[in-house]
Amino acid sequence: MQQAIIDFALDDENHWYAILSCGHTQHVRHDPPWQNRPWVLTEHGRKAKLGVMLECKKCETRSLL
Length: 65
Prior knowledge:
Blueprint: E1 2-10, E2 16-20, E3 25-27, H1 43-48, E4 53-55, H2 57-63
Antiparallel strand pairs: 1-2, 1-4, 2-3
């Protein structure tokens, strides 16, 4: 289920995660070559992604119950 990014925060290991409009969170790590998200490393890059839709696996799982 698609949800909009409303904010970002750092976890205890200094990895960025997106806070979604549904209240759930999802990591958005820049960890090449597996995950190439250099935009997450700058404030400007993160701000540019506000409102972008991400697939929320927690909402998807709950909708199947």
